[in-house]
Amino acid sequence: MTKLETSAANWVGNRIYELSEIPEPGREWTSSEANIDDRILTSLMNRGLVNRVAGKRDDSGRRYYETKPKLYDAIQTYKEQHKETDRLLPCDDPECPGSGFRNIGDGQLECRYCEQVHDQEDVQ
Ligand SMILES: [Zn+2]
């Protein structure tokens, strides 16, 4: 199995929430199907982590892509390693890393990833 080099693995880890819906290798997908914005998609292309499917577009003219196995493996590995650890917030979404927040005042913290608002008192 090819592993990602550290810098690429760190990049994936920092964007795990945006990448969490990326389809498994062998499927062709558009950015809207995978819920990935164009900025992230461009980076994925530049880093060689996805393949563009030549000549195929959907009805809206969106291109199709394929996830490379090394990217998919890195995402799965990251999720396993960070399931319970590093979670600061008790978010309802089990996929949310809950590892960062914004203080929005009045003792309320907003999750940087899923935008759920928590009372500061509920956060350890
Ligand atoms: Zn969250």
Can you characterise this structure?
- By secondary structure, the protein is an alpha+beta fold.
- The chain folds into two domains: 1-81, Orthogonal Bundle (Arc Repressor Mutant, subunit A), CATH 1.10.10; 86-124.
- Helices cover 31% and strands 22% of the residues.
- It has five helices and six strands; from the N terminus they run ααβααββαβββ.
- Strands 1-3-2 form a three-stranded antiparallel sheet. It has a three-stranded antiparallel sheet with strand order 4-5-6, with no helix packed on it.
- A hairpin with a 2-residue loop joins strand 4 and strand 5 (108-111).
- Bound molecules: zinc ion.
- Zinc ion binds next to loops.
Order of helices and strands: HHEHHEEHEEE
The average pLDDT is 89
CATH architecture tag of the largest domain:
Orthogonal Bundle
Biggest sheet layout: 3 strands, antiparallel
Widest sheet: strand ordering: 1-3-2
For this structure, what is the CATH class of the largest domain?
Answer: Mainly Alpha
List the main descriptive attributes of the protein structure presented here.
124 residues, alpha+beta, Arc Repressor Mutant, subunit A, three-stranded antiparallel β-sheet, 5 helices, elongated, binds zinc ion
In summary, what is this structure?
It contains 5 helices and 6 strands.
Write the SSE topology.
Elements: H1 6-14, H2 16-19, E1 28-29, H3 31-34, H4 38-46, E2 50-57, E3 63-67, H5 69-81, E4 101-105, E5 108-111, E6 117-119
Antiparallel strand pairs: 1-3, 2-3, 4-5, 5-6
Bound molecules: zinc ion (ZN).
Zinc ion binds next to loops.
